Amino acid sequence: MTARVGVVTFPGSLDDKDAARAVSLAGAESVPLWHDDADLKGVDAVVLPGGFSYGDYLRCGAIARFAPLMSELVPAARSGALPVLGICNGFQILCESHLLPGALTRNSSLRFINRDQVLRMENTSTAWTNAYDEGQEILVVLKSGEGSYVADEATLDRLEAEGRVIARYVDGNPNGSRRDIAGITNEHGNVVGLMPHPEHAVEALTGPSTEGLGFFASILGHLASGTPAQV
Questions:
Q1: Which residues contact 72 (CB under 8 A, 6 or more apart)?
Q2: Domains of the chain: which residue ranges?
Q3: Which residue, 9, 20, 104, 220, could crosslink 30 as a Cys pair with Cβ 3.0–4.6 Å?
């Protein structure tokens, strides 16, 4: 049976179609999910895409946290049962929803960044990263104004000790993220937040590489294995 991966659309989402295409290219069925419907439609996994949900009013992701759909998504993800990938604004939403620790703040340059970015994969045992090799470097797209990951020292130490940093920036830190962190996972390994955009690196014609496709191939491998994600 073909895996069904939901892609959520919030008011202001702009990468939902790109995420849906990446899901399809990986071999899964992309299922559109609307922010105002408290119905996950029985999907096997969910992608929270990039963009400017609710116009980024208050804080990025602060209003999206309270969307009706999130009332279904949060408990399912917190239990470890539902794999969720949050990309850029989706990462911000995961932090605002307390599914991931820390927060995303203004880039240290105080400018919007749009560039191709090399990442080093650190944890390749999660539901969304198992198609990569540990230490593998991949080229994807980074485009964000509030992409600097911050957390208190105790939280950062815990993430490091538990192997929950899934990717780091290579060849310079583009936004001031603490410890060069580009993405993290929760304790179950089913929830992953990533600031750069793998969905923009899935086709040679339009992306800097096709190396972002591994995130979407990973969830198919995870679902096919039938085993829980591990950190």
A1: 38, 39, 40
A2: 4-225
A3: 20
